[in-house]
Design a protein that fits this description.
By secondary structure, the chain is mainly β. 0% of the residues lie in helices and 50% in strands. The radius of gyration is 18 Å and the shape is globular.
């Protein structure tokens, strides 16, 4: 079966920043849902699927209407992610109460549950204790058992240790990468980090809106080593040279998640769209280290 990129016909509808995990032989999807830019947002929605094609709505995992009025995270619900650790389930999300000025006020939060479809309990304290806006929180489990939280912070992507028992961050905030110099593809800003470990290397995906929306990689030998941007960045870009099988229907693509499918293939999942269309899911197989390319027109499941 072929999935069109972007999948405008997806039963999950229009989604930005898609994040998919495989759990108990089923795929679970969360992401930024409409309305994107203004107006009240109901919370964090979840879908599930046996095949990445037919999505069933599982409900609101984080429900704005169920939160106490004093909670500081009752609106916007940007870029949620699922994380599973030792039988416990976490949804990180980024939120604020002011629906009109969220870009300058977003903070990162977490909700926890004992089942993947909830109920989830929201912890109303921001995950990262800084005055600045934080966004695009991402949890990564290292081989030594340490869990790291990555997020955006004023032109940087940073990381801090995360304790799954208390659902709180601790220790030093570590600078991972900074936005590029003037004229670079990522010079205006960077966001949307997602980390995978392959063949002993840490691959940090990130996105930039500097000249549209594109994805690049920074690579490291360990969390105690520098992350170095790949010189061939951006990796997935509508500005890269076209090949015969590349999609001609994507103008913007970015903010991805990664997973291994049931058949063991590595894939990257991100949102893409052509001007005039709403953002929808794109899926493609990937190998490490990736090479620069345009989004493929189809993905075969």
């Amino acid at each position: 079966m072929k999935i069109k990129n972007p999948d405008y016909a997806s039963s999950a509808g229009s989604i930005r920043d898609p994040m998919v995990v495989l759990y108990n032989d089923r795929y679970y999807l969360v992401g930024t849902c409409e309305p994107y830019w203004s107006g009240p947002n109901p919370g964090v929605k979840m879908w599930s699927s046996p095949d990445l094609v037919d999505w069933s709505f599982e409900g609101l995992m984080v429900d704005a209407s169920a939160m106490p009025e004093e909670y500081p995270c009752k609106n916007r619900f940007w870029a949620p992610e699922l994380f599973i650790h030792n039988g416990k389930f976490f949804i990180t999300f980024n939120a604020v109460n002011d629906s009109e000025k969220y870009h300058s006020k977003l903070k990162s939060f977490v909700a926890t549950a004992d089942n993947i479809t909830g109920p989830y309990t929201v912890i109303p304290t921001p995950l990262v204790d800084v005055e600045s806006t934080t966004n695009d929180a991402h949890l990564f489990l290292d081989d030594d058992g340490t869990v790291w939280l990555f997020c955006n912070l004023e032109g940087l992507i940073v990381a801090q240790r995360f304790d799954p028992e208390t659902a709180k961050t601790y220790g030093e905030i570590v600078e991972i990468i900074v936005k590029g110099e003037s004229g670079a593809w990522d010079s205006v800003g960077i966001e949307g980090s997602f980390v995978v470990k392959r063949d002993g290397k840490f691959y940090l995906w990130y996105s930039s809106w500097s000249r549209g929306y594109e994805m690049g990689l920074a690579v490291s030998e360990g969390m105690d080593k520098p992350f170095v941007k790949m010189p061939c960045n951006p990796i997935i870009s509508c500005s890269n040279p076209e090949s015969e099988n590349d999609s001609k229907e994507v103008a913007n693509c970015g903010h991805n998640s990664c997973l291994k499918l049931k058949d063991g293939r590595d894939v990257v999942i991100y949102h893409g769209n052509m001007d005039g269309h709403k953002e929808s899911i794109c899926i493609e197989e990937i190998s490490y280290p990736p090479v620069p390319h345009r989004p493929p027109a189809y993905f075969e499941i």
